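Reopening: Olfactory receptor still failing for me.
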Amino acid sequence: MLGPPYNHTMETPGTFFLVGIPGLQSSHLWLAISLSVMYTITLLGNTLIATVIWVDSTLQEPMYCFLCVLAAVDIVMASSVVPKMVSIFSSGDSSITFNACFTQMYFVHAATAVESGLLLAMAFDRYVAICKPLHYKRILTPQVMLGMSVTITIRAIIFMTPLSWMVSHLPFCGSSVVLHSYCEHIAVAKLACADPKPSSLYSLTGSSIMVGSDVFFITASYNLILQAVFGLSSKNAQLKALSTCGSHVAVMALYYLPGMASIYVAWLGKDIVPLHTQVLLADLYVIIPPTLNPIIYGLRTEQIRKRTRSLLMHCLFDHFSRGS
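Support: Ran it again with your exact input. Result attached.
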């Protein structure tokens, strides 16, 4: 026997309510403090990295330009969700308008897609720098870098626009309580009065193809890099290259492992993985990489570390000079 037909013409809810992390409400205050600290580090660290690269004419190589864009994307990704999460955890202000919810959904998922593409571009940059150093400037010209950046952005838009459209056009006629800390698309789609599987399947398939292809080419790049590194005669050169590559691999692991775990765990459902674990994975996925990227990528890079120290000392000197 078929159930009553869904009313697709009814008004959409004006407001959703985000519950934070279901089952961990007693820890919300500590989570708010932790997220505030991490978000502050994210803003300061990524702003500092982007500023140093932007103002220093000696840091205009492709790798530093990609780092600058990555810092901007990290700020967008964290800023699209963390302030609201802190508000939920600290004051219980869980309401978010329908339009704001889908705007948040679009930006956080599009930013993650752009970041995946940037990590691939940076792996390709390291491959050219280490394996084809004599052709580095000829291969990675400003035009090529611009083309790569535009392609990465267009790919994210092409992926996210249909997904956002599918979820936003679902009929919502029941509960408006989202069992999540932000407007994650699967959590929102589950509230619909129609079958959310098409949008969920699109998300799972699209994410798997995008991330899978990026990880494949990143792995191939670093495999070639390692072969070239171990072929170097100088042990110091080997250690320096391995240290740089190790930092990059650490960033990628921090980004891809929680991200893909979050996607597949959400698809499997709470019968297999507890709901609070699903939400925690999704939350960590959008805040840990932006927090650690400026530390691992930026401060472990000698040129950026020196320029950052010089910039900070210059600012402090100017401050004390004006004060005296």
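Confidence is low (pLDDT under 50) at residues 1-10. If you still see a failure, please send the error message rather than a screenshot.
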